[in-house]
Structure formats: C-alpha cells, structure tokens
Design goal:
The structure is a single chain. By secondary structure, the protein is mainly alpha-helical. The protein has a domain at 8-19 and 45-111. The chain is 54% helix and 0% strand. The protein has helices at 8-18, 50-62, 66-80, 88-96, 99-111. Helix 1 (8-18) packs across helix 5 (99-111) and helix 2 (50-62) packs parallel to helix 5 (99-111). It starts with 7 loop residues before the first helix and ends with a helix. The model has no long low-confidence stretch (mean pLDDT 88). The structure holds zinc ion. Zinc ion is lined by residues 22, 24, 34, 36-37, 39.
Amino acid sequence: MTGYKMTPGLAKLLTKKLLDECWHKYTTTDKYTCIICKKMFVANRTFTTPDDAHAVMLALKKKGIYGQFYMWAKIKFTSEDRHVYFDEWVWDLWFHSNDERFCALAGRFMEGRK
Ligand SMILES: [Zn+2]
C-alpha cells in the first residue's frame, strides 16, 4: 500500500496543527537546545510509534474531529483501494493496527483542513 507512510512534512503538520506542539529546530552551533521553545534534548515526533499514534487519536478527539477523520479515512481508503471490501469490524482493526499508517492518514486528513 502506498501513501500511508509518514513524511517530514506530515510529521511537522501533525505536530504543529493537530498536537499544538513545537516542531523543534536546532542550529549547527547548538545541537541540543531547540531555538524555538528552548527545551533541551528533545526530538521531534516520528509518528511511527504507539505513543505518537495515541497522542494523535487523543488530539483528534479533543478537537472534536475524530468522527470526521474516521469517515474521511474510510472513504479515502475505499476509493483508493476499492477492490478491497471491509466489514465494519475489520475496518476498525485495520485502522488502528499500524501506528505509522494511522498517523499518515491523520496527516493527510489535516492537510485537507488548511
Ligand atoms: Zn522546540
């Protein structure tokens, strides 16, 4: 399946627009202190881990757009891979069974909400 991979662009978008967190930036002279939030030794989220996927899900729910995202993802998926038919419960399982794919879908959903 293509299009369900995280990219730096999607990661930055999810961090800033959905999680309302800092997309940390470093300089070559100070590789340990973020020049924006001044925190030290913090890495940007990769959105490939269970922790990040959970944060994305909570943020979608907090913003009240989880339902919209779910419907959007379902339509998007079935229109891109329409030869596959999923029952509701299979879809739910598929939807949450891959952290990176879940986050990438959320990123693509947020891209459309500019
Ligand atoms: Zn920062």
